[in-house]
UniProtKB/TrEMBL annotation:
InterPro entries: Amidohydro_3 (IPR013108), Metal-dep_hydrolase_composite (IPR011059), Metal_Hydrolase (IPR032466). Pfam families: Amidohydro_3. This is Amidohydrolase 3 domain-containing protein. Signal peptide: none annotated. GO terms for molecular function: hydrolase activity, acting on carbon-nitrogen (but not peptide) bonds.
Length: 235
C-alpha cells in the first residue's frame, strides 16, 4: 500500500469523548475519551484536553474534529468479507432480522418497532438468519402473538427459504385467498409446514412484492441494519 498515514483518506485527527471506550486490556478498563491521529489511536483515557495535547505533540496542525458520544459505545468500522447483501435485497416484504431475539416477547418488541416504520398493510418478513431454538420458548411465535405485535400488517416468519414458517391473521387471510393450486395451508395457530407449503407462500410473496424498487429499498434497509451493529463495508 503506497498511501501513508499523512496522506489521503487517513489524514486528520479525531477526538471521541463522553463515551464508553472498551480498551480490552488486561484490566478490562473502560475509558471515556479516545484520540485518533492519522488513522492511529494515540490516546485513551478520560481527558479531552489531554487527548488534544497528545495530538498537538505529534504534530497536528489543526484542531481535531470532536464528537460527543453522549454515553454511547463507539466501535471501529467492521468489514464483512463474505456476506450476502444482495440476497437481503431479494427478500420480499420488509425483512426484519431476528438474530438477537432470545424470546417470543423480544420478537414481538422487534416487530412492534418495525411496524412503526412500515406502511400499513405491507408484509413484514423474517426469512432466515435465526432459529426458533434460540428463543427461550423453543418455538415460533403464534398467530395471536404476532397479531398483538403487528395488528395492521401481515407477517411471515420463516427459518429459511424452505421453512417451516408462521404467519398472523392478515398473512393467513392473504395466503388462503390465492386460489387454485397457489393457496397455502395455514394452521389455526399460524404455522406453515416446511417444503411445498412454505415454498408456495414464499413464491407468492416474491411474485407480488419484489419489484426493482422493493429490492433497492431492501438493500438500503440491510445496509442500515449492518451499520447499526458496526459493519460499514461489504465485499
Amino acid at each position: 500500500i503506497s498511501e501513508s498515514y499523512d496522506e489521503g483518506t487517513l489524514r486528520g485527527s479525531l477526538v471521541l469523548y463522553n463515551g464508553r471506550i472498551y480498551t480490552m486490556d488486561a484490566a478490562s478498563k473502560v475509558s471515556s475519551v479516545v484520540g485518533i491521529k492519522d488513522g492511529r489511536i494515540v490516546y485513551v483515557g478520560n481527558s479531552r484536553s489531554d487527548a488534544i495535547g497528545v495530538q498537538k505533540g505529534l504534530g497536528s496542525r489543526e484542531e481535531p474534529r470532536q464528537i460527543n458520544l453522549r454515553g454511547r459505545v463507539a466501535v471501529p468500522g467492521l468489514i464483512d468479507c463474505h456476506n450476502h447483501i444482495v440476497l437481503f435485497g431479494n427478500r420480499p416484504g420488509y425483512h426484519t432480522p431476528l438474530e438477537y431475539a432470545l424470546s417470543i416477547a423480544e420478537v414481538q418488541a422487534i416487530y412492534r418497532g418495525r411496524a412503526r416504520g412500515v406502511p400499513k398493510g405491507k408484509f413484514i418478513t423474517s426469512i432466515g438468519g435465526f432459529s426458533p431454538n434460540q428463543f427461550s420458548e423453543l418455538r415460533f411465535p403464534t398467530l395471536a402473538e404476532l397479531d398483538a405485535a403487528a395488528p395492521d400488517h401481515p407477517v411471515f416468519i420463516s427459518t429459511s427459504f424452505s421453512g417451516p414458517s408462521t404467519t398472523n391473521s392478515r398473512g393467513k387471510a392473504f395466503f388462503e385467498s390465492l386460489g387454485d393450486n397457489a393457496s397455502v395451508v395455514v394452521a389455526a395457530n399460524g404455522s406453515i409446514t416446511a417444503g411445498l407449503e412454505n415454498g408456495k407462500a414464499l413464491l407468492s410473496l416474491r411474485q407480488r412484492f419484489l419489484t426493482f424498487e422493493d429490492r433497492k429499498r431492501s438493500v438500503r434497509d440491510a445496509m442500515a441494519y449492518a451499520a447499526s451493529v458496526g459493519v460499514t463495508t461489504h465485499l
